[in-house]
Design goal:
The chain is α/β, with parallel strands linked by helices and 325 residues long. The protein has 2 domains: 184 residues, Bordetella uptake gene, domain 1 (D-Maltodextrin-Binding Protein, domain 2); 113 residues, D-Maltodextrin-Binding Protein, domain 2 (3-Layer(aba) Sandwich), CATH 3.40.190.10. It has 13 helices and 11 strands. Strands 2-1-3-10-4-11 form a 6-stranded mixed sheet, sandwiched between helices. A 5-stranded mixed sheet has the order 7-6-8-5-9. Helix 2 links the parallel strand 1 and strand 2. Helix 2 packs across helix 11. The longest helix has 27 residues.
Amino acid sequence: MNLTRTFAQSLTIILVLACSAMAASAQTYPTRTIHLLLGLPPGGAADVTARLIARGLEDKLGQTVVVENKPGSGGNLVGQLVANAAPDGYTLLIGPDSLFVINPHLYANMPFNPFKDLIPVASLISNYYAFVVSSTLPVKTLPDFVALAKRSNPPLLYASFGNGTQSHLGVEMLKQIAQFDLTHVPYRGGPQAGIGVVSGDASLTVGGGGVYPLIQSGQLRPLAVTSREPIDELPGVPSASEFYPSYELSSWQGLFAPAGTPPAVIERLRAATKEVIADKAFDGKLRATLSGKSYQSTPEAFAAQIKSESEKYGALIRTLNLKIQ
């Protein structure tokens, strides 16, 4: 009996000390390098966002923030890495909406549960997208392209920056609305998809920051933006909704931490991130690269948005009968 009581007392002391150590660690956070992971290669909007956030957090937190690009499996690879990381605030995720609102419905076997294994820290940006084709393709408008696609046999190819991404679902939505066929070819990122269109390996892609340099160089022609509002950086380019009124595509990027990260660490990160994205210079750099615009939301509203969009895209994916094994 005494041995049992002694063991129980020792275990209690250990737990108290562990909790005290965690609390002390959270109060002094951060004390070393932070790793910021994303599931897309360098050059696209997510990469631009990650590097801007990294520099901003370095200024606010006083520690080095290293960006690590780990593309693969539509973001599932990097999501799993962060979900399995120590919940101490030193491994964070730049997560696209698709990882949370599309992948769980699209992939037959998810390697982790993004709703249970990751905590939303803050919303970061709202992305810009446009339908683009090679400047050598003889079409000037989105309806021109749809007409060309309807005449083509076999179907034309379209490039996306990965299965389950907005550039994948965005074209599938257009196919459903305009009633035509295209064959999907997934690439590892937006720049790669854009190069695929320039080289003639695909006829169309939906892209943002990753294809903007190719638009600026004249190698890609934007046919329409996917938002209902025009984009200042693409003057004269109409909204797809002008031709197909029910069409609209938007997306976001957010900052996430492993489940179990101490609340004090989450709050420290949230406060620092809020200051970074409130800076007009941050927003200006996003817009200048067609990467999007800063997007601030409360934690409650952000969580509710994720849940609502998951329901919307789940219904769409079931309607389109899409599934990746």
